[in-house]
Amino acid sequence: MPLLDRTGSAEDRWTRSEGAAIGNIPAAIVPWEVLAAALDAQEPEQVIGVILPNSVPFAALEPFLPRLALVAIAFPAYSDGRGFSLARQIRRAGFAGEVRASGPLIADQFAYALSCGFDTIELPEASAARQPVPQWLRARDTFSATYQRGYSESGRNVLDQRRAARAAAPIAAE
User: Fold this and answer.
1) What pLDDT score does 63 carry?
2) CA separation for the pair 154, 149 (Å, rounded)
3) Cβ distance 26 to 149 under 8 Å?
4) Residue 29's pLDDT band (cuts 50, 70, 90)
5) Which of 2, 24, 35, 56 gets the most CB atoms within 10 Å of its CB?
6) Which residues, including other chains, have CB under 8 Å from residue 48's CB and lie 6 or more apart?
7) pLDDT in tens, 72-108
8) Does residue 77 contact residue 106 with C-beta atoms inside 8 Å?
């Protein structure tokens, strides 16, 4: 599956495992259902990531975050936005590892995904063929401002920009 980061195509250093037997895989992504067993089997120099269904509550994931290097959130469809909320919760909890969206997102969601805290987007082959990398990069730069507060780039909130403009404007004489 093709991988994108904020600059375009990215190399994927991670290997997916179907179960908890991760052996000598240096950077292994395991399914949510076997995460605890995989962490128990983790070797000293090994890093572990998890592929997380977007229906898993953040409270269930939170105890594992300090031991993870990657959280890949599965998007079953581009119209299912629960993964965006989950990414925000993960970042607000202080997770500094890679947060990956995995599934059929569309290019129009790229800027928002990055704002929510995703580092990478892993696309099915069909999605990548329908919307090539240049289209994703154009979509990333389409929006210069957001309505939501609290995302990674300060100064992009429309309401904050308006408030700052009013404060900087000279006071009209009456």
Assistant:
1) 97
2) 9
3) no
4) very high
5) 35
6) 22, 28, 29, 30, 35, 38, 39, 42, 67, 68, 69, 70
7) 999 998 888 899 999 999 999 999 999 999 999 999 9
8) no
